[in-house]
């Protein structure tokens, strides 16, 4: 939802006049679509059918890439906000897009942390850690 807000807010401005916002739009739309695709894959449990693909590693790589590129998009979006813009509503939307880009960056960073823990096997729950083989 936050990624959708980022690209919707920027798309509602005259972003085509500022080349920096094209990068932000690319990052926001690409990772929003890719996240929706991963969500559908996990919702329909298709990842269980494609057991050859190392899904925990794929998620670590995806989330780490999203975090790094959203850092660049956040910095680009924040640096391109001009408070003396001749269109006040563009300033408000771009500032809000910068704020939500920061939130998306933090969310992808947290997802990177948790997917890394799951990939390394550090995220086991209490039920799996209590099972032992005493045969």
TrEMBL record:
Family matches, as InterPro entries: MAL, Marvel, MARVEL-CKLF_proteins
Example of a GO MF term: structural constituent of myelin sheath
Source organism superkingdom: Eukaryota
A cellular-component GO term for this protein: apical plasma membrane
Residues passing through the membrane, by range: 20-44, 51-75, 95-116
GO biological process: myelination
Coiled-coil features, chain-numbered ranges: none
Alphabetic keyword roster: Cell membrane, Membrane, Transmembrane, Transmembrane helix
Bilayer topology: Multi-pass membrane protein
MARVEL domain: residues covered: 1-120
Subcellular location: Apical cell membrane; Myelin membrane
Quaternary state and interactors: Forms oligomers.
Family: Belongs to the MAL family.
Name of the protein this chain belongs to: Plasmolipin
Native source organism of the sequence: Struthio camelus australis
């Amino acid at each position: 939802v936050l990624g959708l807000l980022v690209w919707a807010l920027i798309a509602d401005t005259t972003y085509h006049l500022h080349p920096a916002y094209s990068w932000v739009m690319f990052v926001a739309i690409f990772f929003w679509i890719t996240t929706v695709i991963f969500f559908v894959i996990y919702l329909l449990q298709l990842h269980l059918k494609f057991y050859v693909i190392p899904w925990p590693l794929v998620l670590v790589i995806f989330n780490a890439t999203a975090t790094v590129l959203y850092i660049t998009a956040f910095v680009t979006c924040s640096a391109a906000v001009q408070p003396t813009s001749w269109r006040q509503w563009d300033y408000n939307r771009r500032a809000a897009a910068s704020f939500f880009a920061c939130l998306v960056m933090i969310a992808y960073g947290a997802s990177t942390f948790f997917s890394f823990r799951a990939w390394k096997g550090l995220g086991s729950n209490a039920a799996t850690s209590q099972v032992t083989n005493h045969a």
